[in-house]
Amino acid sequence: MARKMVFIDTSLCTGCKACSVACKAWNDLPAEKTKRIVSYQTQADFTPTTWTYVQFRENYKNEKMQFNMIKLQCFHCADPACMKACSSDAIYKTETGYTLIDQDKCIGCGYCTKNCPWEVPKTDSKINKTSKCTGCIDRVEAGMKPACVQTCQPGALQFGDYDEMMAVAQARLAELKLSNHKANLYGDQFMGSTTYLYLLEDTPYSYGLHPNPVSPISLTIWKDLVHPLGGIAIGASAVAIAGGVVANFVMGNYAKRAKKIAESHNEGGK
Amino acid sequence: MAKVVYRFSKGERFVHWLHGVSFLLLLFTGLGVLTVALQPLSNIFGGIQVSRNIHRVVAVIFTIGIIIGFVGKGEGARQMRRWVRDVLNFGKDDFAHAKNFAIEFFGGHKPFPPQGKFNGGEKLNSMFTILGTICIAISGYIMWFAPSMPQFLVQWAYPIHSACALFMAALLIAHFYLGVLHPDSNQALKGIFTGWVPAKFAYEHYEKWYQEEAEQTLKEV
Questions:
Q1: CA of A120 vs chain B CAs: smallest distance (Å)
Q2: Is any Cβ of chain B less than 8 angstroms from the Cβ of A82?
Q3: Best A107, A239, A245 residue to mutate vs chain B (most B CBs within 10 Å)
Q4: 3-state SS track over A208-252
Q5: What letter does residue A41 receive in the DSSP assignment?
Q6: For testing the chain A interface, which of B145, B151, B161, B204 should be mutated: the one with the most A CBs within 10 Å?
Q7: Residues B128, B121: contact at Cβ < 8 Å?
Q8: Do A227 and B162 touch (CB under 8 A)?
Q9: Is position B5 within any domain?
Q10: Is the minimum CB–CB distance between A111 and chain B shorter than 8 Å?
Q11: Nearest residue on chain B to A216, judged by CA atoms?
Q12: Fewest beta carbons within 10 Å, which of A173, A183, B102, B122?
């Protein structure tokens, strides 16, 4: 199956949150007690059982209010930092472009969470498992649209093969640019390009998004430098002490030791 | 009959073993999350989730226990503080001792200037241990409470924690050799159990300390 894309056109989003409900329904996720966070937003962050939610930002300009609404979920990066950070080889990529967590292998260490630029994966500390949006991989592989796309009334979510969707996104960007020079695509220029691509009406910053998310340098140092060097240090230390024992033995130091100690018993200090 | 001098107070010995035993427990309960290949190690303790709980309990004992070792007016705490002061005071004589480390390590011998209670090599080992312990403890608590910590802090805690664990393990292997396997320096081994070491050994390895302090405790056993 070819690489897929979900194109999220925020200019068409009405903030109805049906995507969030559809996600819960299809993935059998329990409802959570919500409260008003800001504006019409009722979910502060992802949780182990809330994989997508709509974030609301009210931006005021010339006494006019502009709603910046955005559906958030895992971006499904082509080059995901979470996968590199995973202690248990539980995170993998599908050929359709999805980044998935194998729940059997996951131990809930949470290393993926803080290494994800958006801190998407969340750990359930009761069962020690980490979860996030699966992109409705079961539906996708059965030839259906993801639940959120299926349910989206205003057509803000579109799903298809990556290249076709990219063309749709570019065309829509060009259209929007005629009236809004701030319009931009978010997702195609970082983390190896993401499976969920956004069309934003304003800067990423005004949606509370990193303008240029990267895989953390600390992650590269950790996995590609500290681990191999640490292994070498331990190996070198073990080889050195084996060499030390052999050298002392060959030089007769173990034989001399008994004599030396007997002497020291007699002589005491100086 | 053997002549011995007093080297380590009860407090120093207690903190040494508290550190040593808890470090080993922490290492083996922690290696399972380092890489998948080492995950079977955690089965020794009953699986990865049990290891994780042991790791946290021991971490608290490890950090609180060591801090307590430094507090108070007792002889042990006083000697612990003196150890840190001595270690940080690394001079020409210490360097002269430490530069022959490799020769002594492999069974040779080269004369070195009279050493204080801790020789140059021991001071280096102590410095790495103090620095490593502080860094591994701080980074560990940051990782423990990751969800409520700033993102960049947690991101950097991971490589720091791994680096401290692996390099301190390498250091421990060498420390075990010098304390247990090395035919000359392992004469000190009794000192970390009973507090007393052979007088001649003390004189040969720590002449300055012997003259200034240790000789006063000389006794025959």
A1: 12
A2: no
A3: A107
A4: CCCCCCCCCHHHHHHHHHHHHHHHHHHHHHHHHHHHHHHHHHHCC
A5: B
A6: B151
A7: no
A8: yes
A9: no
A10: yes
A11: B155
A12: B102
Identity of the residue in A230, A236, A267 whose CB atom sits nearest the CB atom of B162: A230
Task: Indicate the number of domains in chain B.
Answer: 1
Partners of residue A129 in chain B, C-beta under 8 Å: none
Distance of CA B218 to the CA centre of its chain: 26
- Write the class of the CATH domain A4-214: alpha beta
Cα gap A50→A29, rounded to integer Å? 7
Question: Which residues of chain B are under the pLDDT cut of 50?
Answer: none
In a domain, B158, yes or no: yes
Q: In the prediction, which pLDDT does B186 show?
A: 87
In the prediction, which pLDDT does B147 show?
Answer: 93
Q: Rounded to an integer, what distance in angstroms lies between the CA atom of residue B110 and that of residue B100? A: 7
| Domain membership flag for residue B150 | yes
Distances (CA, A) of A125 to A29, A58, A129, B71: 16, 34, 7, 35
Q: Which two tokens stand for residue B164?
A: 């401290």
CA A92 to chain centre: 12
Do A223 and B158 contact (CB within 8 A), yes or no? no
SS3 content of chain A, % helix, strand, coil (to 5): 35, 20, 45
Pick from A189, A187, A215, A193: nearest CA to A71: A187
In a domain, B196, yes or no: no
B 12-71: CB under 8 A from A = 33-36, 39, 48-49, 52
Q: Does residue B208 belong to the interface with chain A, where contact is any CB pair within 8 Å?
A: no
Q: For residue B188, what pLDDT is reported? A: 87
Cα separation, B210 vs A175, whole angstroms: 87
Q: Which residues of A touch B170 (CB under 8 A)?
A: 230, 233-234, 236-237
User: Hey, what's the torsion of the CAs at A52, A54, A55, A60, to 10 degrees?
Assistant: 160
- State how far the alpha carbon of B207 is from the alpha carbons of A80, B97, B116, B125, in Å: 59, 12, 7, 20
Residue A270 in this model has a pLDDT that exceeds 60: no
Write the CATH number for B179. 1.20.950.20
What is the structure's pLDDT at B119? 93
Q: Are strands A4-9 and A196-200 parallel, antiparallel or unpaired?
A: parallel
